[in-house]
Amino acid sequence: MGFAAPKGVPDYVPPRSEHLLAVREAMTAPLRLAGYGYLELPVFEDTALFARGVGETTDVVSKEMFTFSDRGDRSLTLRPEGTVGAVRAVLGAGLERGALPVKLWYAGPMFRYEQPQSGRQRQFSQVGAEALGSDDPALDAELVALADHAYRSLGLTRTVLHLATLGDPSDRTDYSSTLREWLKPRVGGLDRETDRRIERNPLRVLDDKRPEVQAATADAPLLTEHLGPRARAHHESVRGHLTDLGVPFLDDPRLVRGLDYYRRTTFEFVHPQLGAQSTIGAGGRYDGLSETVGGPPLPGIGWALGVDRTLLALEAEGVLPHDPPRAQVFFVPLGGVAKARSLALVAQLRRAGVCADLAYGERGMKGAMKAADRSGAHYAVVLGDRDLEAGVGQVKDLRTGSQQAVALDDLVPTLEGLL
């Protein structure tokens, strides 16, 4: 028996891998049009960066990180999310001293030690976007609208945007005190972990997915009842901008994100056909994060869109991207001399931007034409000894069956014209 991928680490092979790539490209395209620059982040960081930035009371830090010691006995962690690393990179490069806001996007794998299930793996792919240096609610709306555009461009129609605000730190402090006292007689004593959350971060109890906890906290007091005037005005402005942009949303005052750095605007894109793991993208504002990791005040907002879960949503709706053809033109060489000439012509076509391939190995006409059909090509070019002597190639339209002889010197421009 051979090796298998580690538990919770999925393989993507064609054609599904092509769909995954199409999802990622659709998510990044709106960002590029909006002036977001590409950021390449390291896959692992100093463990203390995540402990401080994400929050030691979060499940991510306390339970889910892949942490290891390097040969210098330094504690390192595979990135469980991208925002903290992005802020560190911005501060390290001094980008906050230039034109603001700094707009960046990144993509790649994230890692969390969780029990694998559909939509929840230990290695998963995300596209992230961050805008730092402005607390303008219009910037919040821009980022949300870019994510909404990405999902719509893929053909998703059932995604629902949940929108909320977590207020300012003072609002959350007042609310946490009220919520803590409300929770103690209702879910206190349920288990040690719930008691710990009530004392250290009672908002996390509202994020508990267990049915008995959700039922017990259904009528819990809402953070919106404790918002100060500035946070309330910010939220109303975001709502107004999203309405102007034509982005539908659902007000969800019970929305609690699982990371400590969020404040004010928070949101999730939810797909109802994915069961328990229904959030396919999420984000929010994190105005105090820069100071938390040792930087100057630098407001920011960002999101992460799940590439794997979005692919599951596309499969659920039956709107997968079309499989790209392996080739637009497929050469069928008959003999060694013909193969050498075909290889050169294939290279010419590729340089001209045409997807081209040829039959490798010692295949006869029948086997080579089967390979041409399987490639999805529109045209096959049959090239044998007689064709070489005549200086032509036989161009066959694989959709109609029609065939014509084309001079080899004219073959590349002719095929470009046909395509």
The CATH C-level name of the largest domain is Alpha Beta
Tally of strands: 16
The overall average pLDDT, rounded, is: 90
- Major β-sheet strand ordering: 1-5-6-11-10-9-7-8
Secondary-structure blueprint:
Layout: H1 16-33, E1 37-38, E2 44-46, H2 47-53, H3 59-63, E3 67-69, E4 75-78, H4 83-93, E5 102-111, E6 123-132, H5 137-153, E7 160-165, H6 169-187, H7 192-200, H8 203-206, H9 211-216, H10 229-244, E8 250-251, E9 263-270, E10 279-285, H11 289-292, E11 300-306, H12 307-317, E12 329-333, H13 336-351, E13 356-358, H14 365-375, E14 379-383, H15 385-390, E15 392-397, E16 403-407, H16 411-418
Parallel strand pairs: 1-5, 7-8, 12-13, 12-14
Antiparallel strand pairs: 2-4, 3-4, 5-6, 6-11, 7-9, 9-10, 10-11, 14-15, 15-16
Helix pairs in contact: 1-5, 1-12, 5-10, 6-7
